[in-house]
Design a protein that fits this description.
GO terms for molecular function: peroxiredoxin activity. By secondary structure, the chain is mainly α. The protein has helices at about 10-30, 35-50, 50-65, 70-75, 85-100, 110-120, 120-145. The protein has one domain (about 30-150): AhpD-like.
Length: about 160
């Protein structure tokens, strides 16, 4: 399956991408741990079936020193022993925030309480924004069939400068 449309070569999409990257920069510069950012992005991307974003976040996390064991277990984080309680809370929020249509309440009170237990207000703000942003990125890539496999760590670093 080839990409339906090249978002990287279109003027309107390019303007949007700059603003999207700026929103991402706010999250990147937040006090939310970088490892948590990548794990949350990876989990939401797995749920949404976004090969491009799975490729990107797996490679970025590995380049930042994340272990292959943890990356391989993100999809089964509940059945794993390698994630902290804080990371588990963030992964639960990512799942529930991604699967909004699967539950009438969206994010459960139990998950929210766990997130609040482990993260301060700035980290919570970044985490909520991250879940929203990665879901938007997944939808962009899935709609146009942007395929995974060609991403290189740091290839969008210039967009954040």
């Amino acid at each position: 399956m080839d990409a339906r449309f090249n978002l990287f070569d279109n003027e309107v999409a390019g303007k949007f991408a700059k603003r999207f990257a700026n929103a991402g920069l706010v999250i990147q510069q937040s006090p939310l741990p970088k490892a948590t950012q990548e794990l949350v992005s990876l989990r939401a991307s797995q749920i949404n079936g976004c090969g491009w974003c799975i490729d990107m976040h797996t490679k970025e996390a590995a380049a930042a020193g994340e272990s292959a064991v943890r990356l391989n277990l993100v999809a089964a984080w509940r059945e794993s022993t390698v994630f902290t309680e804080a990371e588990q809370a963030a992964l639960a929020l990512a799942e529930e925030g991604t699967r909004l249509a699967d539950a009438y309440q969206g994010v459960s009170d139990e998950t929210w309480a766990e997130v609040r237990k482990h993260y301060d207000d700035d980290q919570v703000a970044a985490l909520v924004a991250l879940v929203a942003l990665i879901n938007a990125a997944n939808r962009l890539a899935v709609i146009v069939h942007q395929r995974g496999g060609s991403y290189q760590p740091g290839m969008f670093a210039a967009a954040f400068d």
